[in-house]
Amino acid sequence: APGGFPAARRERRSLAAPRATASPDAGGGAPAASNDNAGGADVSLQPPPPAAPKVVWRAAGILLMAGQVVRRVVCGKVHWRNTREQVGLVGPRTMGVAMLTASFVGMVFTIQFVREFAKLGLTKTVGGVLALAFCRELSPVITAIILAGRVGSAFAAELGTMQVSEQTDTLRVLNSDPVDYLVTPRVLSCMVCLPILTLLAFIVGLAASTLLADAVYSIPPNVILDSARSALVKFDLVQMTIKASVFGAIVSIISCGCGATTSGGAKGVGESTTTAVVLSLVFIFVSDFVLSFIFLNGTSGDALARVVA
Predict the structure, then answer these.
(1) What is the DSSP letter of 31?
(2) How would residue 9 be classed by pLDDT, with cut points 50, 70 and 90?
């Protein structure tokens, strides 16, 4: 046998549990237990130190992946063919649900606002209120939530399956960085597609509100549109675009990070997908508060005053 293996076997025997050896006694007897290490050192097997919680190393992996994506984008190391393919997947996958959701949300808000504002004689301000609500909050947040459910879950499941089946290791063997090939194109595609989808959701939601106000409450479309044009300024559209890009980066990085840190087979893939969607939703609302506080804290708040005037 090769040298070293017998020594290893002797070491394992020395750490084994005490063996029972037969010793005769007056009763003709049962074997008595004797410890092989009697008189020697007291050997005890210590349990391994506890590993870090899964949430800790998953959070560290997501932060590390975010830094790698930023560095690669800044350095221009982008796989453009994969990026174009992901743009073609992210946009169509989200557009239908986003437009349908925006239209119904717009009609619901129209019902709420028109009934209350009509009692106050402020019917001509309904369009301005709807436009501000959609542009500043509803359109980017709703579209980002749909992106997290439709695209973010797919990213996490796809990368998680590749991780547990060792396909990412195959990419490394082929001298391809998984972050360059898989993660960066997905992040860029979400950051590009989500502002466009948000703008379309804003247009569809406002159009649905205008149609409902005209058909049900007999408010002419020009009243709604003139009020919206008076309330909105260019910075509102810039604010909506910035929010959408930030939300797209958050959803894609969290989803790819959860997928890349998957372990445990099919069960682990399911857990990573659920975690990706939940974390994406939480950080969408947290970042929405932070961005809204930054954008609106120093404004004069005269948007509706311009409509009334």
Answers:
(1) P
(2) very low
Whose structure tokens read 């997947």? 89
Average pLDDT over residues 31-48: 51
| H/E stretch holding 208 | helix 184-216
Measured CA to CA, the distance from residue 155 to residue 252 in angstroms comes to 8
Q: What's the pTM?
A: 0.79
Q: Which two tokens stand for residue 169?
A: 């290791």
Nearby residues of 260 by Cβ (< 8 Å), 6 or more positions away: 61, 65, 159, 160, 163, 168, 178, 183
Contacts of 15 (CB under 8 A, 6+ apart): 43, 45
39 is written with which tokens? Answer: 């008189």
* CA 36 remoteness from chain centre: 57
Q: Which tens digits make up the pLDDT trace of 263-307?
A: 888 899 999 999 999 999 999 999 999 999 998 886 656 666 666
User: Are 148 and 281 contacting, i.e. CB atoms less than 8 angstroms apart?
Assistant: yes
Q: Are 262 and 296 in contact (CB under 8 A)?
A: no
DSSP 264: S
**Do residues 301 and 233 make contact, with C-beta atoms less than 8 angstroms apart?**
no
Residues 164, 165, 168, 172, CA torsion sign: positive
CB 307 within 8 A of CB 227: yes
Which H or E element spans position 111?
A: helix 80-119
Interatomic CA distance for residues 17 and 123, integer angstroms = 86
Would you place residue 54 in the very low, low, confident or very high pLDDT band (cuts 50, 70, 90)? confident
**Mean pLDDT score of the chain, rounded to an integer?**
83
Instruction: Please state the separation of Cα 122 from the chain's center in Å.
Output: 40
Section 28-41 average pLDDT: 49
